[in-house]
């Protein structure tokens, strides 16, 4: 049976825009960071348009954004870490209104960004945060990688930002707790952290926290507890909890119209 012409036209109209929605991540350069102890950390990096031609003496400098992926994107393919959030920075509006160096490292499958004890027999997961434990080697490597990239004279060291989702949200909280003088602002998504360390960054790092109220992987109470502790310390903190959203609250967070402008509106405190 022949397909009616009208139906073919409808299918063409339906599928044509879809092909344009997927964005190539080729603009993110592939690299591997040689860390201490013989470890290797794959990472992708996106540079602003015209960055290569820019002079280190120019007045304009660019912010750096560090993005920590979730547990599901671990590996060594140097691809999966761009699954969530990668397209946000490729959007033309982002490239034009928020030109930045964007860093996506990839944690290996057998490790974790955060120093957390996990009981996987529970749902949501049983999580015990304790920053008295040593940092994991991937998180140490991330800190060294940021330091290396930020040496570039074209990067504004007063505008280093960090965000991350799930395991990466936990890593976000831990990095600003351990290095409160490094980042100008942080946006942890569906994560959590050691509330006893909040005092170390409460007066230095503005934080925007995100979580879904129906998260069945990482209990939203972990974000709520961090926010409550920061509020008690007089921190610059805001919290967005999404109604009827499960563990994919990063979709909501990255769709926030003020997400990038909020980050870029902060500069690192001098004291």
TrEMBL record:
<dbReference type="InterPro" id="IPR002925">
    <property type="entry name" value="Dienelactn_hydro"/>
</dbReference>
<feature type="domain" description="Dienelactone hydrolase">
    <location>
        <begin position="143"/>
        <end position="247"/>
    </location>
</feature>
<protein>
    <recommendedName>
        <fullName>Dienelactone hydrolase domain-containing protein</fullName>
    </recommendedName>
</protein>
<feature type="signal peptide">
    <location>
        <begin position="1"/>
        <end position="22"/>
    </location>
</feature>
<keyword id="KW-0732">Signal</keyword>
<dbReference type="GO" id="GO:0016787">
    <property type="term" value="F:hydrolase activity"/>
</dbReference>
<dbReference type="InterPro" id="IPR050955">
    <property type="entry name" value="Plant_Biomass_Hydrol_Est"/>
</dbReference>
<dbReference type="InterPro" id="IPR029058">
    <property type="entry name" value="AB_hydrolase_fold"/>
</dbReference>
<dbReference type="Pfam" id="PF01738">
    <property type="entry name" value="DLH"/>
</dbReference>
